[in-house]
Amino acid sequence: MSKFWGSRFNKGTDALADKFSFSIGYDWRLAKYDVRASIAHARMLGKCGIIPRKDAARIAAGLTKIGRQIEQGKFSFDPKAEDVHTNIQSALKKLIGPAADKLHTARSRNDLIVLDMKLYCLDKLNEIIAAITAWQKAIVGFADKNKDVIIPAYTHLQSAQVVLLAHHMLAYVEMLERDKARLYGTLKRTGRMPLGSCALSGTTLPIDRNFVAKQLGFAKVTANSIDSVSDRDFVIEALSDLAILGMHCSRVAEDVILWATREFNFVDIDWSLCTGSSIMPHKKNPDILELIRGETAKLYSHLNEVLVLMKGLPLTYNRDMQLDKPPLFGSVEKIKDMLGLLTKLFAGLKVKEKAIAGRIHDETFFSVDIMEYLIKKGVSYRQAHDTVGTMIKECVDNGRKIADLTLAELKGYSPSFGADVKALLDPKVSVSNKKSLGSTNPALVLREIERWKKIVTLATGGFARGY
Ligand code: ARG
């Protein structure tokens, strides 16, 4: 086809080359940002006297109209126009005539695409932060509703000690807060406005880059035109943040998948997030959670794709960089779905309190508490560990319970034992006796629930200081 930018070409490009290189099939997602960027640019051109003010006003009015069509889904993208920029440029020409030809003054697609991508990232990462906060809110609500429930906790997937279910839930909230902190950091570094770098060296025209930055809500302009058009760090940072966030989604999904098994039997997932089996009528499968776990692989491969894409590129712009878009869009869209589903999951998750209550009385859960009882009486850690280890081994071997040992038998293991040690064989006592900051102590956990409740309801999107 004949080229939009191709006056020096004596031939149209090959049809297969067009099919291979056109990006409109995916970069249409940038249309509303391209319009916003172009309105700001046109206003600047008019203000600086680079184009007549009335042309600038016509361009801005035409673009505003196109922007409205895009928002309403009424803009029809032309698959024969190479990319989002050419699509909008052509539509503007149709709408306002020759004045449209002045829009691309003092800019290049090389700097424009970076600006579009940055505006996209700023928008979407903020939406993702809000979605994380909504999920945190659902988790905190779930923790609050079940704040008295005690569950076995695991290391090596072997039951280890008892904790409050709410304490386990707040672990998720903590890791999500770190995800938000990473995203805020990425937003901060993304917030430098690149337009006006033009192809790579800047322009001889008297532009005002700060004016464009201000209109678009950027605090600063980029400092180096070569870096501006070469940089895709912000895409890689976003993909990296989303890969880590995805890893967290996947680990939560895995916990709930395990907890919903008949073997664990801790929770019931709402039917709306499960599917049946085509052959086994009794099945209720946690497919959605399995797919969240599975899709996380994609989030990692998207990050890897762009890292590899960029690693051998000489400065400045290279067309390879066009291919940063499908992975970025893919990760953004996937993570938003995952966060939405996980929020619904916690809103409808039921705790099987009775089944759990029958599982928290295993005496071995309290071995550390008994050990610390001895330590408090002056026994060394090593001695206490050996004593409790021997006592548990002999009880297990002989089919006995610590609770049934006589005082004489207890004293046989350690003269420091008194009858009061048996009070420790109780899950409620076990959690209450924890004293350290950040532990599963019910008073501390309650305080944490209250702290998080406040954070996740802040209008700012909820962000804890100090992360
Ligand atoms: N579609 C291109 C991209 O996404 C836009 C920039 C093209 N620039 C160029 N000089 N061919 O990177």
Description:
By secondary structure, the chain is mainly alpha-helical. The chain has helices spanning 15-21, 24-27, 31-47, 53-71, 84-96, 109-145, 165-190, 209-215, 225-230, 233-259, 287-311, 325-348, 353-357, 367-376, 381-397, 407-413, 427-433, 442-457; strands spanning 150-155, 158-164, 192-193, 220-221, 267-268, 350-351. The chain folds into three domains: 18-105, Orthogonal Bundle (Fumarase C, Chain B, domain 1); 110-358, Fumarase C, Chain A, domain 2; 363-424, Ribonucleotide Reductase Protein R1, domain 1 (Orthogonal Bundle).
What is the C-level CATH assignment of the largest domain?
Mainly Alpha
Helix count, DSSP H or I runs of 4 or more residues: 18
Q: How far do the termini sit from each other?
A: 53 Å
Mean pLDDT: 95
Structural class: mainly alpha
Order of helices and strands: HHHHHHEEHEHEHHEHHEHHHHHH
Q: What gyration radius follows from the Cα positions, in whole Å?
A: 30 Å
- Going by CATH, the architecture of the largest domain would be Up-down Bundle
Count of discrete structural domains: 3
Query: Quick one: overall form?
Result: elongated
- Summarize the biggest pleated sheet: 2 strands, antiparallel
User: What is the CATH third-level topology name of the largest domain?
Assistant: Fumarase C, Chain A, domain 2
Q: Low-confidence parts lasting 5 or more residues at pLDDT below 50?
A: 462-467
Task: Record the strand order, biggest sheet.
Answer: 1-2
Small-molecule binders here are: arginine
Share in helix = 55-70%
> How much of the polypeptide forms β-strand, as a percent range?
under 5%
How many E-type strands? Answer: 6
